[in-house]
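Example S7 (structure tokens).
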């Protein structure tokens, strides 16, 4: 009986979820989300006040390697994430906070995971809560953001999306170069999604 229930649940999930795939990555997105932005390096799916955004940047020259990040590198990256986001939204009088950044490893794929909070209720009617992950490979720097108008602590939705991301260039960087100079390239997905959301709601 339990097996029948499990199979039924899996069928329901597969019906409600659609895989998006290109030459660089594939990800499972709930069919209730609408693909709103699709360019060579930026993708955005929306549902009400929620969105999923992915950015892709070239890493062949930069050779960023998250596996080589030290504790100091991660702390610096948190600051540059926050500075980059706030520079992008400065004209909206909203200041975002980046917290809980850590380096994680899943099947020898290293990535940074972090939270972003936008106190935007006064400007657009609701605050934004984001969970992000940044990956580096030989070719790409890929950032995925799950953004919601509700706190994410008790939700598995973002985990299902973030865990479904598969980078087709899955070779990690060969370089042992330790990064001491940062740019906020990983936050592009968050900035794209946040600015679109803020603009839409601020103009209502």
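Recovered sequence:
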């Amino acid at each position: 009986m339990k097996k029948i229930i499990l199979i039924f649940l899996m069928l329901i999930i597969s019906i409600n979820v659609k895989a998006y795939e290109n030459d660089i990555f594939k990800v499972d997105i709930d069919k209730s989300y609408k693909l709103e932005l699709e360019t060579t390096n930026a993708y955005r799916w929306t549902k009400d006040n929620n969105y999923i955004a992915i950015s892709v940047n070239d890493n062949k020259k930069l050779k960023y390697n998250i596996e080589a990040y030290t504790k100091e590198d991660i702390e610096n990256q948190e600051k540059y994430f926050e500075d980059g986001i706030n520079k992008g939204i400065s004209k909206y009088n909203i200041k975002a906070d980046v917290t809980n950044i850590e380096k994680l490893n899943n099947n020898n794929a290293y990535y940074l995971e972090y939270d972003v909070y936008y106190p935007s209720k006064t400007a657009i009617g609701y605050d934004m809560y984001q969970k992000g992950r940044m990956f580096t490979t030989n070719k790409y720097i890929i950032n995925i953001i799950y953004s919601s108008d509700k706190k994410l602590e008790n939700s598995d939705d973002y985990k299902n999306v973030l865990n479904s991301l598969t980078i087709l260039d899955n070779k990690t960087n060969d370089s042992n170069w330790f990064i001491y100079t940062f740019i906020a390239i990983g936050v592009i997905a968050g900035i794209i999604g946040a600015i679109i959301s803020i603009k839409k709601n601020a103009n209502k």
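Notes on this example. Helices lie at 2-16, 71-88, 121-124, 157-164, 188-202.
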